Amino acid sequence: MSQPPGQPRLSPQFCFSFGTLRDFLRLSRSSIDDSITQNLNALVTPARTGFDPSSTSKRAPRSFAEPIDPEACQSFKEKVLFPSWKARAEVLSYCGIVATSPDPDDPEATILELEKQRDRERIVDERLDPYSGRFFPREARTQSLALLMRQERAVENIVRSRTWDVIQGRCGTSSQSWQDAMSNWEASQKLSRGDGNPTSS
């Protein structure tokens, strides 16, 4: 299995570098989700030895009838799948905030303001020019980023659902949704780090 890209250093510059942002999401999905069948095939071992990260580099064809050890499946989800999903979720969340925040460093801010000023000064007379009332200002980069985030969130939900369907079919796990499984994993991570606050009975 090709390794997913490491968590990028989150900054507004990263979010506005649309090519870099898309590359991170694409590489992360292709290394884990798009190749989920091969990754699960690599977990098929005769002994209940748990998940060995190095085993996913072996992609020998295997029969779908071969059972996958439940412990190996669980280990794959906790050590590979969920961390990859979390890394992408953090990027989408952060860049979503950037998209709705003021952007004083936009290199085209001056041009956008000039266009608005010219629009206010235009003389509109649709009797003489039926197109004079039309004004199509260029889009601020925050607007472009917001649109990209909406698209990528939709893609992310589709990708996760497909991946989870394959895992459910191969690992024979419960009917738990990927949303619940992810939430439970994140909660366990917080508890293991001591971030959680146990509820008093």
From TrEMBL:
<dbReference type="InterPro" id="IPR019171">
    <property type="entry name" value="MIX23"/>
</dbReference>
<protein>
    <submittedName>
        <fullName>Caffeine-induced death protein 2</fullName>
    </submittedName>
</protein>
<comment type="similarity">
    <text>Belongs to the MIX23 family.</text>
</comment>
<feature type="region of interest" description="Disordered">
    <location>
        <begin position="174"/>
        <end position="201"/>
    </location>
</feature>
<dbReference type="GO" id="GO:0005758">
    <property type="term" value="C:mitochondrial intermembrane space"/>
</dbReference>
<dbReference type="InterPro" id="IPR016805">
    <property type="entry name" value="MIX23_fungal"/>
</dbReference>
<dbReference type="Pfam" id="PF09774">
    <property type="entry name" value="MIX23"/>
</dbReference>
